[in-house]
Amino acid sequence: MGIRERLSGNEAVAYAMKQINPDVMGAYPITPSTEIPQYFSAYVDNGEVDTEFIAVESEHSAMSTCIGAQAAGVRAISATSSCGLCYMTEMLYVAASCRLPITLSVCCRALSGPINIHNDHSDAMGVRDAGWIMLFAETNQEAYDNYLQAMRIGEAVGLPIMVCQDGFITSHAIENIELVETDKVKAFVGQYRPKHYLLDPDESVSMGAFGMPAYYMEAKRQQAQAMIDAKDVIYKVGREFGEMTGRTYGLIEKYMMDDAKTAIVLIGSSAGTAKEAVRQLRAQGKKVGLIKVRAFRPFPSEELAEALKGVRAFAVMDKDDSYNAHCGPLFAETAAALYAAGVREPRGVNYIYGLGGRDVRVDSIKQVFAELDKIAATGYAGQTYRYLEVRE
Amino acid sequence: MSYSLKENVMRPERFAAGHRMCAGCGSPIAVRTVLRQLEPGDHAVVCSATSCLEVSTFMYPYTAWKDSFIHNAFENAAATLSGVETAYKALKKQGRLDDTYKFIAFGGDGGTYDIGFQSLSGAMERGHDLVYVCYDNEAYMNTGIQRSSSTPHFADTTTTPAGSVIPGKLQQKKNLTRIMVAHGIPYVAQTTFIGNFKDIAEKAHRAIYTPGPAFLNVMAPCPRGWRYPSEKLMQITKAAVESCVWPLYEVVEGKYILSYEPKNKLPVEEYLKLQGRFAHMFKPGNEWMIDQVQQEVDRNWQELLASCGK
């Protein structure tokens, strides 16, 4: 049985870091992730962890120090949000291509401009093609649980991993949470044993090569394979975590989807609101369901196609926009997944919602289901690129 | 132990032959000389900023680096190496590593004076035990000779072409060495290739074996960008030192020490005339440019002498 606590998402992640006791943290302040290095610095300065904390002068250097440290042969971590993640972007690609399983905690926040400190997914979605595994949490419990699983997943395939939660909504809200005993955490996460690393006295290595056309594409193909391989690893680690805690994880979570005729697909904390909407509508006899995407990278294409093939209409809700005059990234990839799997029947629409912290209420979700009812009845989706609850 | 060039060059090479740097380039000479100052039993981790040096020495599947080496990006060699150095500290503290490692970063002036300046400043301020070596060739040579903040006044580069209205670069060279001194780090030195390489060798050794951060600024001419025949490399570095364009000095715990004072300070023409990038300054009517450079060099030299208590 775990330890019952009440923690904010940031406290929970910092506590997970403390239990894991990684070797190096390089971090720079930004709202709303700042609390994580803040809490962690206290652990460092009070001798509760062995970690060396590098208070860098920018997020770019935060990720650069993580790359150096992980390449040197140790576990490196960081935390950031919003513009900080943007500023790291160049280095995120290098971390992935150098196959360094760095763990980055992201408290998702809107991007400028207008400058805004509240939650949406523009920051994480902006780096979705950087080659990182990306897990998203609905609750503080999931933020904590995902963090405990992250290193196992990243290290198994040699890819860096982002553990995302919703800024303020989970990062600052205090919830009941069940913590895992530290000895169990340590046994679960295990030791980091890289095959090749800079500080190996028996072998010099060169890392970060200049890759000309004769070799570049093979390097990228191997990177792509690692992401493909990550799917099975996420399931395996999620199952083992379930055996330890009773909380099992996969790539997606299906909520009342078995006989659903309409469904919503979304990411993150809004799943909690959507679940309440589903419960209320189910009580009225409506066959509605929810799919929460936990792993955005690797993308759960088969899982989504399988889950959606029986519905008449679905809405993919993007807490971000691609500004392509067409749709957000979650809709684009969901539609591609259905098309690739030969699933043609369900009508799908895309809602851009919750940008810059715009509140998402149970009624907001019910409004989307009401629209889906109409689409299911007529078989006509109409405008598929929609903004939810916006003054126009 | 007194310095001997013969003894020094007999040490095992840590930077292999066969890399693709140009003949007559100062950068690989700086690298070889600095790495030779490592004590034979010590390991090193070398980091290079993206540069001519990086793309010419680690083109997959070949590497010229016998020690462990990491290239990350253009602007973050100092931050990257500070991560490596911190990992070393972590392993040492946990008793997981017995061997001794030293940490040396190389960057060109673009990667050091300009785009990598923030990363460098941060790493120096944080006090990591590493050496940052700038091989200063005074422009973005890897991308084709564009001006940097290290490019000297009036130099003809591809983004400051000596035109009919604007005569080359309008600004003076940034004095990075003094900016690094202002960080209050234990060791800063300015050097280049002179005579039997005693100056650079001894400074590199001190930089590597002084605990804490150290910065070495090495004038490393580029035959393509400076436009000189490759065999004239050391004639140019000598003229730079004798004219006080590039004075040799070190700053130990904040104390300035002049390494060399020319007996007869050469006029700057003697340095400028060796290089095609300054050729337009010698055209009739442009004498004012040379005069102005002479004034600037004189002022910098007087300031340095004053700092050295002379």
Name the CATH homologous superfamily of the largest domain in chain A.
Answer: Thiamin diphosphate (ThDP)-binding fold, Pyr/PP domains
The CATH homologous superfamily of chain B corresponds to: Thiamin diphosphate (ThDP)-binding fold, Pyr/PP domains
User: Could you give a short account of the major beta sheet of chain A?
Assistant: 7 strands, mixed
Query: What average pLDDT do the residues of chain A reach?
Result: 98
Low-confidence stretches of chain A: none
Number of individual domains of chain B: 1
CATH fold-type name of the largest domain in chain A: Rossmann fold
What is the total number of structural domains of chain A? 2
**Which assembly state applies to the chains in this document?**
heterodimer
- CATH T-level fold name of chain B: Rossmann fold
Number of strands of chain B: 8
Radius of gyration of chain A: 21 Å
Q: Total number of β-strand segments of chain A?
A: 16
From the coordinates shown, what is the CATH architecture of the largest domain in chain A?
3-Layer(aba) Sandwich
Question: How much helix, percentage-wise, in residues of chain A?
Answer: 40-55%
User: What summary fits the major beta sheet of chain B?
Assistant: 8 strands, mixed
Radius of gyration of chain B: 19 Å
What is the arithmetic mean of pLDDT of chain B? 97
Strand content range of chain A: 15-25%
Q: How many separate helices of chain A?
A: 12
How would you explain this protein's 3D organization?
The complex is a heterodimer of chains A (about 400) and B (about 300). Chain A has 12 helices and 16 strands. With about 400 residues, chain A is an alpha/beta fold. Chain A folds into 2 domains: about 5-245, 3-Layer(aba) Sandwich (Rossmann fold), CATH 3.40.50.970; about 250-385, Rossmann fold (3-Layer(aba) Sandwich), CATH 3.40.50. In chain A, the strands form 3 sheets. In chain A, strands 3-2-4-5-7-6-13 form a 7-stranded mixed sheet, sandwiched between helices. A 6-stranded mixed sheet of chain A has the order 10-12-11-14-15-16, with helices on both faces. Chain A has a two-stranded antiparallel sheet with strand order 1-8. The termini of chain A are far apart. The model of chain A has no long low-confidence stretch (mean pLDDT about 100). By secondary structure, chain B is α/β, with parallel strands linked by helices. Chain B has one domain: Rossmann fold, CATH 3.40.50. Helix content of chain B is about 35%, strand content about 15%. Chain B has an 8-stranded mixed sheet, with helices on both faces. In chain B, a hairpin with a 2-residue loop joins strand 7 (about 250) and strand 8. Chains A and B meet through strand 3, helix 3, helix 4 and strand 9 of A and strand 1, strand 2, helix 4 and helix 6 of B. Strand 9 (about 205) of chain A pairs parallel with strand 2 (about 70) of chain B, so a sheet runs across the interface.
